Amino acid sequence: MSAVASINDLAVSFATDAGPVRAVDGVSLEVRPGEVLAVVGESGSGKTVTAKAILGLLPATATTRGAVVLTARDGTTTDVVSVSGARLREVRGRDVAMVFQEPSSVLNPVYTVGRQIAEGLRAHGKVSKKEARRRAIEVLGTVGIPDPEERVDHYPHQFSGGQKQRIVIAMALVLNPGLIVADEPTTALDVTVQAEILELLRRLRDDTGTAIVLITHNMGVVADLADRVAVMYQGEVVESAPVKDLFSDPQAEYTRALLGAVPRIGEGVARAAARLEARPEGWHDAEPVVRAEGLTITYPGRFRQPSFTAVDDVSFTIRPGEVLGLVGESGSGKTTIARAIAGLTPVSGGSLEVLGAQMNGARGRRLRTMRPRLGFVFQDPATSFNPLLTIAECVAEPLVVHGRARTPEAARRRVDELLEAVQLPRSYGDRFPHELSGGQRQRASLARGLALDPELLVADEPTSALDVSVQAKVLELFTELQAELGFACLFVSHDLAVVDLLADRIAVLYRGRLVEEGTGAEVLGSPREDYTRRLLASLPVPDPVAQAERRQTWETLAEPSVR
Amino acid sequence: MTAPEITGAGTAGAAPEHLRGRGAWFKRLPVVHQLRQSVGLQRGMLVAGLVLTVAFVVLAAGARWIAPYGWAQLRGPDGMFGAQQPPSADHWFGTTVGGYDVLSRVVWGAQTALFVVVVAVLSSIVVGVVLGLLSGYFGGWVDRLLVLVADAVYAFPSLLLAILLAIVISGGQSSMWGGIFAAALSITVVFVPQYFRVVRAEVVRVKGEAFVDSARVLGTGHWRIMTRHVLRNSIRTLPLIVTLNASEAILTLAGLGFLGFGIEPTAAAEWGYDLQRAVADVTSGIWWTALFPGLAIVVAAMGMTLVGESLNDLADPRLRSRSRSKQVSGKVAATSVVADDQQKGDVA
């Protein structure tokens, strides 16, 4: 059986302002029919560039060397690197198609999905309107959109995120290509939806025999779907092996490090128990740092539309020195709660007491005494620093604002201490935020959050923008600092495994309501609620054998509507 | 995690450019930086624009020494210049219908134009930025009102507005500085909405950024947030508008002068006025009185437009052209974040 795509000694460099930069160097890969090849690696490892090279989609600033030979279903071969634009357009869609990361930005909002699917058909030969529509309905049915006859005339905004990704997959499928390149197809989706999309991709491979190149950084997804795995690091393939061998016996050092960095559920239970043991007498009755009772937050609607309730009647407490993990999917209200605690979003109902200050109806001045006792770590380290100030100035900002130092320079000693506490070299204080990597920036962000020695730290998805290997280090640092400084923490995340690693107690949010709360052992070990069980089962684990079992559990738990 | 190929690789630990010793500071100045960055046609445009603009500024600043006569001088050591004299050794560009030396008026006119441009641009920046910052940051009804006014001014024909203001400000009388301020301020009113809208839009965007949120969490006061975090991040596009507006200011000034709302010929030299006085000459074959002031307007405006346009292109990474190599070259960038994380502990 010959390969559908074979990449031979591919090298790509980009012209940038700082001269040429090589993104991919000497990559050779082969994809066989009906196979799922996963390409994994951290951001910047060249995996997306490799994927785009398969379709000849690299921008004009790229220079390519080597060969990417595609074999069509009828046996003709094309070298994507050297062919003309016209030939390339013929090949795209027919021999190879692409599924992008962010489904909502891939679909054109002003056309119906049916028309967008038909577009691919019409680009390849004459197809009547009726025929195109029939095929579009057919392929929508294949990807599991209910009522395809009716939905074909709907616009993208009328579909949910998971359905949009199904439609993007349908667009890729409509010409029945031999190969689909899926670039992080589930990264933008929630875990429960991710599980459904992975199931769909698996079914497509089995039914249509389409080979899939799956670009991802999520080892759980790899374990779930892939047949073979290629690990990329700094533009090169460091290891390529069948999925079971890779997970059970990784050869390259880098692969081992990568696998070791993936958080697994169940690691944090022992730690949480040990912490609970060490609590002083009477800790349970101590005055909590955060107490929410019937907390409700609504966003006002515009133009007489009803207002939207983001958080609905939520009650919880955080005691001193305790880490509460808040988990939920996008839109479950977890970030809203975090922002409300920091006073960034007004509370509309119920009571929210933070460090003794009532947040419901509170205005700026009354919160002044509370502010210095609270630290906040933002989700995206790239945007949470003022790009025009150096790291030292940014970290010194809390000290200056609260009068602990007159100028950023005067605060430099304390800033250096803080940078060392988060394991950044002192000299990094003179750098600008864009000169640091994501992980380093998030450490600096942590340093800023801890500058005033707060009693409460609110961390809003602090690691979701980071690669796994970096995430592992930031989380470890976080645990160390928490143990050392003993601050209470609200840790918001969509990743159950991350929360499990850190939290003393876990609260699960679903559509603005708190569905379950308890210790890690309670919530993750024996969940009471259906939703929690489904969430747990949807989370792919980085182990192909265990994941195959979990998949079965998931299938029995899944809502009937999605099957 | 002590894998050798992970910890050993990468140069990301090296100091970034701004820490790599001194002597490079001038390379980061706004225009110099772009000049170094540009290639090909964009570089040609920028260089041509810079040469013309520098020539204009030199002419304006050195008018006292460059111009052979004063702007209102009618007689030399040999008596009167005479009206409409063709170009000669004494008067390189000839003389006007009023008996002035054309070369001198062109050179002195550059000075007037420069003053007007500087005053107009400075005052419109100050007013536009302050209003834009306050309006964008606080929002509410003040914001809505200001946007409405800005849009109304924007919708007005700008020359008509400038004429109106020239009359209101100078009341028809004009000394040199009175005329310059009248022209500059009437241009200011036309330009303020541009700066206002650009700055306001940026402020509204920056206000939503996470770093402003982070300042708010700290309890930072409005004034400090506005000046330290919002303002400096909102004015990056201003140099572009400044260069484009400078050329527009020259054209507006010339337009005012041409229509007779500019500066008296005895108060200062002004290209638009000279051009208007030369209209009748053109039909009788006297070309020098119209050609030189006209050329001066075109060249000065073009120089600034070229600088502005090429800066505009260079500021946008999608429009910026870069030198491309035919071969695959360059090193693999050390993008791995693992490599430079200085971490002592093990991961797992």
UniProtKB/TrEMBL annotation, chain A:
Keyword Transit peptide: no
Subcellular location(s) of the protein: Cell membrane
KW Nuclease (keyword) present: no
Domain ABC transporter residues, every copy: 7-259, 290-536
Protein name: Peptide/nickel transport system ATP-binding protein
Molecular functions (GO terms): ATP binding
InterPro entries, per database record: AAA+_ATPase (IPR003593), ABC_Ni/Peptide_Import (IPR050388), ABC_transporter-like_ATP-bd (IPR003439), ABC_transporter-like_CS (IPR017871), Oligopep_ABC_C (IPR013563), P-loop_NTPase (IPR027417)
Keywords for this protein: ATP-binding, Cell membrane, Membrane, Nucleotide-binding, Transport
Family note: Belongs to the ABC transporter superfamily.
Protein topology in the membrane: Peripheral membrane protein
CDD domains: ABC_NikE_OppD_transporters
Main subcellular location: membrane
Pfam families recorded: ABC_tran (PF00005), oligo_HPY (PF08352)
UniProtKB/TrEMBL annotation, chain B:
Domain ABC transmembrane type-1: 110-308
PROSITE patterns on file: ABC_TM1
Origin organism lineage: Bacteria, Bacillati, Actinomycetota, Actinomycetes, Micrococcales
KW Membrane (keyword) present: yes
InterPro entries: BP-dependent_transpt_permease, MetI-like, MetI-like_sf
Region (Disordered): 322-348
Residues spanning the membrane: 45-67, 113-138, 145-169, 175-196, 238-263, 286-308
Subcellular location: Cell membrane
Magnesium is among the record's keywords: no
Protein name, per record: Peptide/nickel transport system permease protein
CDD domains given in the database record: TM_PBP2
Membrane topology reported for the UniProt record: Multi-pass membrane protein
Organism (species): Isoptericola halotolerans
Pfam (any one): BPD_transp_1
Primary localization: membrane
Entry-linked PANTHER family: D,D-DIPEPTIDE TRANSPORT SYSTEM PERMEASE PROTEIN DDPC-RELATED (PTHR43386:SF1), OLIGOPEPTIDE TRANSPORT SYSTEM PERMEASE PROTEIN APPC (PTHR43386)
Keywords on record: Cell membrane, Membrane, Transmembrane, Transmembrane helix, Transport
Family the UniProt entry places it in: Belongs to the binding-protein-dependent transport system permease family.
Superkingdom to which the source organism belongs: Bacteria
